[in-house]
Structures are given as C-alpha cells and as structure tokens.
Structure prediction request, 260 residues.
Amino acid sequence: MNYFAGIDVGSLSTDVVILDERDEILGYSIISTGANSTDAAEEGFGKALTAAGLGRGQVKGIVATGYGRVSVPFADRKLTEISCHSLGASKLFPDTGMVIDIGGQDSKVIRVGPEGKVLDFTMNDKCAAGTGRFLEVMAAKLRVSLEEMGDLSLRGGGEARISSVCTVFAESEVVSLVAKNHPKEEIIRGLHRAIVSRIWSMVQTVGVYGEVTMTGGVAKNKGVVAFMEDKLGKPIHVYHEPQIVGAFGAALFAQKENRM
Prediction:
C-alpha cells in the first residue's frame, strides 16, 4: 500500500492529511501555524502520521499548498490552494460546480469543472474583511468563542446593521453597539450578514454553477453557512472537517503524480 500527504500551511492553521491509494483519509491534523511555517509543517506532519499509524518513510509523495507552501522544504511539489481546494471539494462532493473557501486571512470563490479542474476564480487577499480573522477579532470584542457565534446568530430574531466589512471600522461599530446594550445575537447576525454580502459580490463575479461547497474554518460557522444558503437560494455542502479540504486536495495531487 502506498501513502501520500497533503500539507496546507495557512495564515492561522496548518492542516495535514495522510491518504492511501484508495483515496481513504487515514489521519489528519490541524494545528496553529504560529510564527514559523516550517516548524508548523513539521509538527503537523508528525501528528498526522501518528494519527494514521505510519512512519515518515512510508509516505511516497508530499504536496504542499497554502500561503506558506514555500516554507515546506520536504515537499515534493508545491501547488496553489485554489487548485487543491477545487480537487478536494470535487472529490468529496462530485457535483461541485463552485467552491467558497473562507480562510483565516483571505477568501476565494472558485468555479470548478469536471474532476476538480479550476475554470475561474476570484479572491480577496488585500484585507481581512470577510475572513476568519475578521470573525476572530469580533468574537474577542463580544467575549464569545468562535464556536458559539454560529449558534448565537441562529437564535437572534432581529439583526444589528453593520455598515462596514473593514475589520477596523466594523470593530468600532461593534464596540458602540455593545455600549448600547444591543443583544449579542443580533450583533453577530449583522456581522454574518456583512461577511456574506462581501462574499456574494465575489460570487457574482464568478457566477453560480452546479452545487456549492464551502471549505475553510469559517464553514464550521452555522450562521454564515445559513446566511449564504439563503443568499444563494440553494443548500451548501460542508465536509465534517472543512479545514482539511485543501490538504486533502494536495494529498490527491501527490497520489496522482505518483501514478503517472
């Protein structure tokens, strides 16, 4: 049996997947990237190997992806996260026509063709608006955990208006709303609406095709997913661990290259 690894080094987390030649995920890890991408890749790889019950020498191919992919010296190849998220999403959900990836520091909307081929994409990588970092800052201001935000927003009946998706300006708006004793649930709903509005403008650039899959850490937020489904008018696929979809795609690429 041959084994392959995908290492996705993101701004906030480093995700690693160990795959066998039957496309089965044997083990994975999700750790904080921290200040050193190379150290994070080494640590994450080691933890994923332990979860899979394998040794390093048993892995036949390694592909690195993510913004920190250049910091993985032991990878056989380095590919963009756009390609890896597309392949990973289409493997998990074969009818995927569009991928919405909301990561820690950037967001991407990708039009996907047969076998995960990238047909078109757009991305926001100039500021933290509409990203995991945006939600992280707002959660800290509201003194709630990121995990709580999704459930809280689904409880809120009303909705606070957040006029800006700029992290700095939106933070000021949140502070003001908190000072006025505005319900947290309604503030969070307003924040989620602001994120979805930002992503929606990107969706319109690419166009909606086929079924939609969301990847990245923000896909764990039920509130954001629900708002996005409402905007799209269709259900969204979310893998049970959406953070590892890019690493899964990278491992699939490693597997494909070793079959050539």
